[in-house]
Structures are given as structure tokens and as C-alpha cells.
TrEMBL record:
It comes from the Bacteria. InterPro entries: BUG, Bug_dom1. Gene3D superfamilies: Bordetella uptake gene, domain 1, Periplasmic binding protein-like II. Pfam families: TctC. This is Extra-cytoplasmic solute receptor. Keywords: Plasmid, Signal.
Length: 326
């Protein structure tokens, strides 16, 4: 091929590349130009599902484009998460998840995706304290009662939605922080664990407050303590763990959005702005308060740092070294 022809092909290739780049930027600026799917990797009705549907509604109203939730449950959330990790990085398929995302490296020896590289945190927006929940009117009136019983008899039991779930790890973390041992009774889901608690099969449950607030307000369950630095407006009578005698136990359950790696920066920035705008509304703040959660917002940088920090913390819980003095 002569030099003139070769040069022409090179120029044509550069032109195509430039056009592709311009097209990608234009698409990003126009985002969202079509409906946006948010994958919730758990069954309908759970805390992540409920909170995400509320956020999707707000995003739809703010952007004029449809944001909708699709549940893709299975394998502790890894099936739906893997689907998003393999999706086109164009901003039209997102992942909603919670603290469980930071647990995955400590639950599975191998994952069908790299949680640190294949998905990028975009924003987190509702923060639900974890609470120790018992049957209302039962023998445990305070957290101190429960811990004392566990120290005297290691058969004090708790229910969870399964081995490797956030309540499982959070309950073990509480035991490490309090110097007590609890007996784990796994169920197929958090709902079954709550039924077992109501029926007296287990002694307590570590639960995300939004998931049990209805039973608490109905006087069927009682909360002995909640995580976080301050009491919840919806449960003003319930002490924090620090107030109840267990300092340093600050496990909270966040809800947030991830996007496939390579999603245009313009799309990520727009989505962050819309989530921040949503959480600044009286409607979303009142909603968070009503379900026993704390309204708030993490941008992508903060979210990424927090996920890494919590992944490291859960690793220490898995190895029984959390809360040890250095």
C-alpha cells in the first residue's frame, strides 16, 4: 500500500474515533434518554427493594424519564449483581444493594465478578441502623439483660436470613464487641427469622430497622438498642448501643447505587446530582424518618471509601479479630 493510501486510512480511522467519542459524550449529556433499569438482587419487599423503589420514583419525577426496579434474586445477591457487572456501561442498568455488597468477598471463595473493579459506586442515600429486636413483653427488657444471659449460657439464640447475610455478620460483631457468644439459627430469609422470633423459636434478631418497624409499632416486637451515634426519631425511647453499654458498635446498613465499570463520568455525575437532589427533598427525608432510617447522601468518592472500609471490617469479623485492642 502506498504512503498516500495508508495515510488516508489513518485519517479515516482517526475521524471515526473522534466521531465515536463525540457520540459517547452526546449520549452521556442526553442521559437518560430512555428508561433506566435498577436491578435489586433480592426478592421484593425487603429493605433494599422498598427503599430503591422510593428512590426510583423520585428520580423518575426529577428527570422526566422512567426509573424502574427489577428483582433478580439468588445466591446472596450475586446473580443480580453479576448481571449488572456484565451490562453495557451506558447508565441504563444500575445495581441497588446494601452492606451485603461489602460482605461478598468474605462469603464466597470465588465470585463471578470482582466487586472492587467491575462495578463502581455511584451514590448512597438511606442509612438504616441495625437493632437488636426481641419479642415484646418477653424476658429481655434491656440489651444488658440479653448479654448477661448469653455470657451465662451460650445457648441464647438469634435468627438471621441465612449464613453470610448482614444480620448474621452483625450479630457476630455484636458478640465480639460485648464479649459474648450467641447461637446462630439461619433461615431462608429475614422474614422467616422474624416469624421465628415472634413464635419464640429464637431469642433475638439483629435487623435493619425499616424491615421490622411495622411489627415494633404494632407492639409485637421491641428494640433493645440501635446502632448509630444518635437515637432515631421514630424510636426515641430506644438507646444507642453506646448508651446501652456496648461502645464501638456502629454497624449501619446503607442503600446505594452502583454502575458497571466504564460508565461515562458525565452519567455518573448526573446521577449523583439527582440522588443528592432527591435526598434534599422533604418527602425523602420524611420517608427515611418514617421507616426508622437516617436520610443522607454519599457521593461516589465517599461511597467507594466507605465500601472499602467496611469490606475490611467484615473481614475482621469473619476472622474474629474485630474490636480487639491493638
Amino acid at each position: 500500500m502506498n504512503r498516500k493510501v495508508s495515510g488516508a486510512w489513518k485519517l479515516r480511522g482517526l475521524a471515526f474515533a473522534a466521531l465515536a467519542a463525540v457520540s459517547m459524550v452526546a449520549q452521556a449529556q442526553a442521559w437518560p434518554a430512555k428508561p433506566v433499569k435498577i436491578i435489586v438482587p433480592y426478592p421484593p419487599g425487603g429493605a433494599v427493594d422498598v427503599v430503591t423503589r422510593k428512590m426510583a420514583q423520585r428520580l423518575s419525577e426529577q428527570t422526566g424519564q422512567s426509573f424502574y426496579v427489577e428483582n433478580k434474586a439468588g445466591a446472596t445477591g450475586t446473580i443480580g449483581t453479576a448481571q449488572v457487572a456484565r451490562a453495557a456501561p451506558d447508565g441504563y442498568m444500575l445495581l441497588a444493594n446494601d452492606t451485603t455488597y461489602a460482605l461478598l468477598p468474605h462469603i464466597f471463595k470465588a465470585l463471578p465478578f470482582d466487586p472492587a473493579k467491575d462495578l463502581q459506586p455511584v451514590a448512597a442515600y438511606v442509612f438504616a441502623p441495625m437493632g437488636v429486636v426481641v419479642k415484646a413483653g418477653g424476658k429481655y427488657k434491656t440489651l444488658a439483660d440479653l448479654i448477661a444471659a448469653a455470657k451465662a449460657d451460650d445457648k441464647v439464640s438469634y435468627g438471621s436470613g441465612g449464613a453470610g447475610s448482614t444480620p448474621h455478620f452483625a450479630s457476630e460483631a455484636l458478640g465480639l464487641a460485648a464479649g459474648a457468644h450467641f447461637m446462630h439459627v439461619p433461615f431462608k430469609g429475614a422474614g422467616e427469622a422474624t416469624v421465628a422470633l415472634l413464635g419464640g423459636t429464637v431469642d433475638f434478631q439483629m435487623a435493619s430497622i425499616p424491615g421490622v418497624i411495622g411489627q415494633v409499632k404494632g407492639n409485637k416486637l421491641a428494640v433493645l438498642a440501635v446502632s448509630g451515634s444518635k437515637r432515631l426519631p421514630a424510636l426515641a425511647q430506644v438507646p444507642t448501643f453506646a448508651e446501652a453499654g456496648v461502645s464501638g458498635f456502629g454497624v449501619t446498613n446503607f442503600t446505594g447505587l452502583w454502575a458497571p465499570k466504564g460508565t461515562p463520568a458525565e452519567v455518573v455525575e448526573r446521577l449523583q446530582k439527582e440522588v443528592s437532589r432527591a435526598m434534599a427533598t422533604a418527602d425523602m427525608r420524611a420517608y427515611a424518618d418514617s421507616i426508622g432510617a437516617e436520610p443522607g447522601y454519599w457521593d461516589a468518592a465517599t461511597f467507594r471509601t466507605e465500601v472499602a472500609s467496611r469490606t475490611a471490617f467484615w473481614g475482621k469479623v469473619a476472622h474474629g479479630t474485630a474490636f480487639q485492642k491493638q
